[in-house]
Design goal:
InterPro entries: Homeodomain-like_sf, HTH_TetR. This protein is 68% helix and 0% strand. By secondary structure, it is mostly helical. The protein folds into two domains: 47 residues, Homeodomain-like (Arc Repressor Mutant, subunit A), CATH 1.10.10.60; 132 residues. The chain is elongated and about 65 Å long.
Length: 204
C-alpha cells in the first residue's frame, strides 16, 4: 500500500511533480516522459504518483489549465477585448497569441505537437478543458458569436472564422520555410492585417 503523506508532504510532492511535468513535457513530450521520470525528483514510488494524479495526462491537463487564466488575460482580456473596434481587437489577439505560442514552452509544445492534446482529451472528458472558466478558446468563440450578431464580422460559420485565426497562428511554426525567412516579422504583420481586415471588413 502506498505510504500516507502529511498535508505538508503532499503539497511539496505535488509541487515537485508539477515542476517535473512542466520541464519534461516541454522538452521530451508526453509520450517519451515516463512515470519514473516524473516521480524521481519527488523521491516517491511510482505507485504513490496515483495519490496525486490519475495519469500522466491528468498532470499535463492540470499544467495546461493552470496556465489558461494567464493566457486568457494576455490574449483575450488585454488584447481581443481591449480594442476600440473588432478589426483592431483581432489584430491584437493574433499578435498576443503568437507571442504566447513562441514564448510559453507548454503552449508552444501543444501547437507543434497537437497529438499530445488529443492524447489528453482521450483520457478525460472534453468538458474538463472547454468548461474551464479561463479557457481562451471558449472566450474567442463567444466574441465571434457576439460580433457576428452585431454584423461586425463576416457571416461565415464561427468555426470557420476561428479556423482562419488558427491558421495565422501556424505561421511561426513554419517561419523557416518562407522564401525569405528573415522577413518573417514583416510577413506576420501583413498577414495579420489582411486577415483582420478580411474578417472585419467594416472596421467596426
Amino acid at each position: 500500500m502506498p505510504p500516507a503523506f502529511s498535508a505538508e508532504e503532499k503539497a511539496r510532492i505535488k509541487g515537485v511533480l508539477l515542476e517535473s511535468g512542466r520541464r519534461l513535457f516541454t522538452t521530451r513530450g508526453l509520450r517519451k516522459t515516463s512515470l519514473e521520470d516524473l516521480v524521481g525528483p519527488a523521491e516517491i514510488a511510482k505507485s504513490s504518483f496515483y495519490q496525486f494524479f490519475d495519469s500522466k495526462e491528468a498532470l499535463y491537463l492540470e499544467l495546461m489549465t493552470d496556465r489558461m487564466t494567464e493566457v486568457r488575460r494576455a490574449t483575450v482580456d488585454d488584447a481581443l477585448l481591449s480594442a476600440p473596434d473588432t478589426r483592431e481587437g483581432l489584430r491584437r489577439f493574433l499578435h498576443a497569441t503568437v507571442t504566447v505560442l513562441t514564448t510559453d514552452p507548454l503552449y508552444s509544445r501543444l501547437m507543434t505537437h497537437p497529438e499530445e492534446m488529443e492524447a489528453v482529451a482521450r483520457r478525460h472528458d472534453p468538458e474538463s478543458v472547454t468548461g474551464v472558466p479561463g479557457n481562451p478558446v471558449t472566450a474567442l468563440f463567444s466574441f465571434v458569436d457576439e460580433k457576428r450578431g452585431e454584423g461586425a464580422l463576416v457571416g461565415a460559420d464561427p468555426a470557420v472564422i476561428v479556423g482562419v485565426l488558427q491558421a495565422v497562428l501556424l505561421l511561426p511554426m513554419h517561419a523557416g520555410r518562407l522564401a525569405s525567412p528573415e522577413r518573417y516579422p514583416e510577413v506576420l504583420d501583413l498577414l495579420v492585417d489582411i486577415v483582420a481586415a478580411g474578417l472585419a471588413p467594416d472596421g467596426r
